[in-house]
Amino acid sequence: MTLVCQKSLFSLDSDVSYLNNAYRGPILRKSEEAALRDLEGMRKPYLVQSEDFFLGVDRVKSLFAQLIHSQKEQIALVPSTSYGFAVALNNMISASGKKAITVSDEFPSGYFSLKNWAEANDGKLVVIHPDSKSESFGADWNERILQAIDGETSVVLISSVHWMNGVAFDLEAIGKKCCENGAVFIVDGTQSVGMQPMDVERFGIDALICATYKWLLGPYSLALAYFGERFNSGKPLEESWMNRTNSRNFSGLTDYQETYLPGAAKYDVGETSHFLTLPILEQSLIQILEWTPEAMLSYARGLKEKLAEFQLERGLHLSMDRHSSDHLFALTLPTGSDPQQVKKQLEQAKVFVSVRGTSLRVSVNVFNEEKDVERLKGALIS
Fold first, then answer.
1. Per residue in 162-172, is it b (16+ CB within 10 Å) or e — as a string?
2. Could you give the strand order of the β-sheet that contains 184-188, starting from the edge strand earlier in sequence?
3. pLDDT tier at 248 (50, 70, 90 boundaries)?
């Protein structure tokens, strides 16, 4: 499939160049409509059937499982990545003295989750830094991660794509090394899943957690999680009535069942149904699967190539190798530039990006077009 600009499917202003999906993704028009339909239903709760508490959840889990090449039974609905990390780490066997590996400048939710786990289990937190002077920045960083994983490693927790600079981690190679050494592999997929192909089985991922409000084009305060079979016998963080085997029998809920639902369903957050917000996510997942992440990423690469040419003209660099993601990347500024001032200048021209460190973080999606890139370039040299 070859995509063209999909901006008409969103409610973005025509005079705005929103190059900041990694900050928060916009929702689709049809997601808006789905939420409004659900809101209309909330006006008449006597029309809500008991099955309505479960059917939307089932559909979303099935769609997400299809997106990441998993089984629906291994998907859980959680409120955040930190909740998902807590589920995974709380169900890991203690390994005194072993390594817990992450990367430098990992998002705080992942860093602190792993740091606290290492401290509680007398483990050693190992943070892998890149060689900032290396000409092959991303490749070098990936190699350092692989070298660090050995028989003394209990767990590796990293993002699929680094949230600050867009470095793409080689999940397949890292997952293989984890498997060879008996280490648990936990991935924060927030900054790639929905835009970049994901295959949890091929990549050897044990737990994948994704906030939905970025590349899944979903609502805030909701996340989707995959927990592999090694977690099937674990314990949830809370005792929700919905994760027991008799939960769909409303008249028999006090016929207390000790048995949890199979697979990852036991890890669902309480009040899993998420009326109003879950319909938003369902529609976005349907659309993403129709577009396909492969076609979306190819479209994004075409836009990034225009910026790489622009950077080259200015004597600056923008990597196009496989260790730099095509949808999220750091745009280096000329020496002496104040990135916050540059950001303000861009916003005056209705061009929106983020500042991360000393660079602009640009993130493109299928609602962007070459005109947005030209407006960004124009605003940078004005």
1. bbbbbbbbbbe
2. 75-78, 223-227, 207-211, 184-188, 153-159, 99-103, 124-128
3. confident
**Structural tokens at position 48:** 């809500």
Residue ranges making up the domain that contains 347 = 10-27+293-381
Q: What is the dihedral of CA 277, 282, 287, 289, to 10 degrees?
A: 140
pLDDT beyond 90 at 227: yes
| Residue 77 in this model has a pLDDT that exceeds 90 | yes
CA end-to-end span of the chain: 37
Provide CB contacts within 8 A for 34, sequence distance 6+: 279, 280, 282, 283
Helix, strand and coil percent figures for the chain, each rounded to 5: 40, 15, 45
Residue 18 half-sphere exposure, CB side, CA atoms within 13 Å? 17
- Which residues, in sequence order, are bridge partners of residue 167? 324
Distance separating alpha carbons of residues 362 and 160, to the nearest angstrom:
17
Backbone phi, then psi, for 346, in 5-degree steps? -65, -40
What CATH code is carried by the domain that includes residue 196? 3.40.640.10
**pLDDT by residue (tens digit) across 111-133?**
999 999 999 999 999 999 998 77
Calculated CA dihedral for residues 104, 109, 115, 119, nearest 10 degrees? 180
Q: Of 259, 290, 321, which residue constitutes the final position of a domain? A: 290
Q: Is residue 214 part of a domain?
A: yes
Residue 271 lies in a domain: yes
Dihedral angle, C-alpha 134, 140, 141, 143, nearest 10 °: -160
| Greatest distance between any 2 Cα atoms in the chain | 71
How many other CB atoms sit within 10 Å of the CB of residue 369? 17
Which of 155, 140, 157 lies closest to 324, judged by CA? 140
- At residue 345, what is the residue type? Q
Copy the structure tokens of residue 381.
């040299």
